[in-house]
Amino acid sequence: MIIGAGEVGYNLAMKLSKEGHDVVVIDHDPEKVRHIDETLDVKSLLGKGSSPGVLKEAGIEEAEMVIAVTDSDEINMVVCLIAGTQSKIPKRIARIRNLEYTRETQIFDEQHLDIDLCINPEMETAKTIVRLIENPGSADFAEFADGKVELLGVKIEEDSYVVGKKLRELREVRDLFPDLKVLIVAISRDDRIVIPHGDETIFAGDILYAVVDRHSIRNVLVYLRKKEEPVKRVFIAGGSHIAFEVARQLQDSGITVRMIEKDSTRCERMAESLEKVLVLQGEITDQRLLREEGIEDADFFVSASDDEDANILASLLAKRLGARKTITFVRHLHYLPVLPTIGIDAVVSPRLSAIGRIMHYIRRGKILSVATLKEEDAEVIETVALDTSDIVNRPIKELKFPKGAIIGAVVRGGEVIIPGGNDIILPDDRVVIFALQSAIPKVEKTLMVKLEYF
Q1: H/E run at residue 353
Q2: Which end of the chain is more exposed for a tag (fewer CB within 10 A), N or C?
Q3: pLDDT digit string, tens, across residues 242-286
């Protein structure tokens, strides 16, 4: 049961419906409910999600999971509270955006609201932006196994050494970097993600997705791209919660950070809280201001205001004025496939962050984390290999692993293994799997312990 048919609720309903789940969506907006009726194969109900009567009418007694993702933190908490008092529901999830709530974690524990997962997509997005800045050659990023394994999306430029080479030729990288632990698991090209074969040719503009041991990241980026200069100067456009959190995390990193925000009250508040950040009042698309502040010397321009159209325009402007890299924050997922094609280096969305965290609780088997990529065309799943699942105690080449999925890494006793066909997965290994959307149900079945659900 999904409460709230906004961007997150709608896309979750679509994703779960495609995978064969029975989904009920509740929203008080007639237009949103009508849109769901016309486009999705799910049950929809018009009404207030915080109403016990509406929840009962929607069949809350039979629900296995309640996901509250309205725009109101308070409504989301009330929904989970009602779900806990009216019915024994195994999982309750709420989107909580207000930092004052998320700091008071005790209110969500079993003795109080008893919410299994509180999602703050903005905070997750800020973390992603900071990691993209820390690894300037990457266009996408996710981490697994407590940071030991990372997924990098690397855009291939025209002057890259690997342009025109076949994927199997990249194995020579091991001669240059003998300790390198990396596996290219997918290529994004022409708005499609494919799991490539050895004879696949790499073209400029491709985004290569590589599963990498964290100690190999810099060597991988050097190999796939020309050497990146250290990041010294970052511009942050906007005074949103995300922008503030990015500036807060960067201010002690030795990077010079400038922020631009048009609202004077926000400027004063941020200047008081960010002692090592220069906060400027002005429009984020003001060319004169950007030039005066030296935008041509910026290593990164992060547009993270609350206006996503202004973010796109500001990033394009900053790029034209000389900024080396741009990161653009958008809320609507339909922007994601378009922006990289017009010159924006990286796009981040809290919607994808929220969906990925929620899918963690929906996947079968013992799932530790899920990252969603490219408008949900693919997922990276981190799981624990359980002793009765189909992937353990046999060489990987003998596994009947679904087409459209690939095992990218195995973590055993703190050691990262990039597996080959002769490697064997053992019980309790952490396994990182890249899977196209079409393969996910079969991957779940392969991972699942018999009779275990959730």
Answers
A1: helix 350-360
A2: C
A3: 999 999 999 988 899 999 999 999 999 999 999 899 999 999 999
One fold for both 2-119 and 353-447? no
pLDDT tens figures, 178-197: 667 888 888 888 778 888 88
Q: Quickly list DSSP for 203-233.
A: -TT-EEEEEEEGGGHHHHHHHHSSPPPPP-E
321 near 295, Cβ under 8 Å? yes
Cβ-defined contacts of 423-428 (< 8 Å, 24+) = 423/395, 423/396, 424/392, 424/393, 424/394, 424/395, 424/396, 425/385, 425/391, 425/392, 425/393, 425/396, 426/385, 426/392, 426/393, 427/385, 427/386, 427/387, 427/392, 427/393, 428/384, 428/385, 428/387
Helix (H, G, I), strand (E, B) or coil at 448: coil
User: With a threshold of 0.85, does the pTM exceed it?
Assistant: no
Query: In the numeric block, which tokens belong to residue 355?
Result: 């969906």
Q: The tokens of 424 are what?
A: 């064997």
Give me the CATH topology for the region 353-447: Alpha-Beta Plaits (3.30.70)
Q: Are 354 and 335 in contact (CB under 8 A)?
A: no
Query: What are 93's two structure tokens?
Result: 């999830």
With 60 as the cut, is the pLDDT of residue 365 above it?
A: no
Enter the tokens of residue 200.
């696949």
**Going by C-beta distance under 8 Å and a sequence separation of 6 or more, which residues neighbour residue 306?**
238, 240
Three-state secondary structure call for residue 27: strand
What is the distance between the alpha carbons of residues 146 and 313, in angstroms, rounded to a whole number? 36
Of 367, 423, 369, the residue nearest 392 (C-alpha): 423
Please return the burial class of 107, using the count of CB atoms within 10 Å of its CB with bins 0-12, 13-18 and 19+: middle
Superfamily of domain 2-119: NAD(P)-binding Rossmann-like Domain (3.40.50.720)
Q: Which of 205, 219, 225, 217 is nearest to 162 (CA)?
A: 225
Q: Using one digit for the tens of pLDDT, what is the confidence trace for 96-141? A: 877 666 666 666 666 566 677 778 888 888 888 998 898 777 777 7
Which residue, chain included where needed, has tokens 């900071």?
130
